[in-house]
UniProtKB/TrEMBL annotation:
Coiled coil: none annotated. The keyword Oxidoreductase applies. This is Oxidoreductase. Pfam families: Aldo_ket_red. It comes from the Bacteria. SUPFAM superfamilies: NAD(P)-linked oxidoreductase (SSF51430). It comes from Streptomyces davaonensis (strain DSM 101723 / JCM 4913 / KCC S-0913 / 768). CDD domains: AKR_AKR9A_9B.
């Protein structure tokens, strides 16, 4: 496992993050504590050091289990959790990105995780009802208190994230170091605005659902994909031709390279941008071990093209318009200008 720097900070984080959303059996389909321990140990033995959870995962069980499993080795991990989602559906102030919910959610997470600080604290989703100034100032106060070391934002529009970081930079507050978004061969929406913004601002990108619910691992498209008694999140019969076409391309490349489809799909996200860290979750340690094989797997350009062709993805306006008019805008001499490299 290799390590990269988190955003524009000096914190070293592993190529792949471990997602703990499935930890705990509260919803009837989660992972038992004993298997959670095997999963975490498998991840740690491979060199992984980022564990990602949230205050609402498993109705709190995820944070509790993660805290118990990290006892005696907590400082060796970059502990990541999130707030925004409700802790009490009957209380309007038990959700959102305002100062009150941040403060109470943070104290709840610290207690469950059995720690006195969070390495990476995420805003879970944009709350349109809370001014971003309030959120950024409250997060900065949490950092200054020592209870949070770094901050990130998940599931928010590019304009909001860039505004928040510009505001923080102007006022001397803590800036977001990371962005968390869905990203896979079947969901490339972030390439339009969010990923270019993250690269330009130097944000690390944590990619959730990089296997698109298991579709890209071959779970629903290859014989024997779903094991007996194993919970299935999707109805295989509901998958369309696009899903099958992309899954076939992933499977074909995997067979050619002698690796698993999951490894190819995960490697694609990291090859596409050096800012991306896939969040890998698993229900079994063996499944996680296979996913971790994506570390160090770089796909050549011709295979990247084969994987991307069946996605039918287009950047759309304004990117396509700007690229398409560049010769008219800049003239013949402009075509010989070496383009500026995006910062990473």
């Amino acid at each position: 496992m290799r390590y990269r720097l988190l955003g524009r900070t000096g914190l070293r984080v592993s190529e792949l993050f471990l997602g703990a959303m499935t930890f705990g059996e509260g919803d009837g389909v989660g992972v038992p504590r004993k298997e959670c321990a095997r999963i975490l140990d498998t991840y740690a033995e491979a060199g992984g050091n980022v564990v990602d959870t949230a205050v609402n995962y498993g109705d709190g069980q995820s944070e509790t289990i993660v805290g118990e499993l990290l006892k005696g080795r907590r400082d060796r991990f970059v502990l990541s959790t999130k707030y925004t989602c409700t802790r009490d559906g009957e209380d309007p102030n038990a959700a959102g990105n305002h100062r009150k919910n941040l403060t109470q959610s943070l104290e709840t997470s610290l207690r469950r995780l059995g720690t006195d600080y969070i390495d990476l604290y995420w805003v879970h989703i944009w709350d349109p009802n809370t001014p971003v100034e309030e959120t950024m100032r409250a997060l900065d106060d949490a950092v200054r208190s020592g209870k949070v070391l770094y901050i990130g934002v998940s599931d928010a529009p590019a304009w909001l994230v860039s505004r928040a970081n510009t505001l923080a930079e102007l006022r001397g507050w803590t800036e977001f170091a990371g962005l968390q978004v869905p990203y896979s061969l079947l969901n490339r929406d972030v390439e339009r605005e969010l990923l270019p913004m993250a690269e330009a601002l130097g944000l690390s990108v944590a990619a959730w659902s990089p296997l698109q619910g298991g579709i890209l691992s071959g779970k629903y498209t290859r014989p024997g994909g779903v094991g007996e008694g194993e919970p299935a999140r999707l109805d295989a019969g509901a998958l369309g031709e696009r899903e099958h076409a992309v899954a076939r391309a992933v499977g074909s490349v995997a067979d050619e390279l002698g690796v698993s489809p999951a490894q190819v799909a995960l490697a694609w996200t990291m090859t596409r941008s050096s800012a991306v860290h896939p969040i890998v979750g698993a229900r079994r340690a063996e499944q996680l071990a296979d996913n971790l094989g994506a570390a160090g797997l770089t796909l050549p350009a011709e295979l990247m093209t084969r994987l991307e062709e069946p996605t039918g993805f287009r950047l759309g306006f304004p990117a396509e318009f700007i690229d398409g008019t560049s010769k008219w805008v800049y003239g013949a001499a402009g075509q010989r200008v070496v383009p500026r490299r995006r910062p990473h």
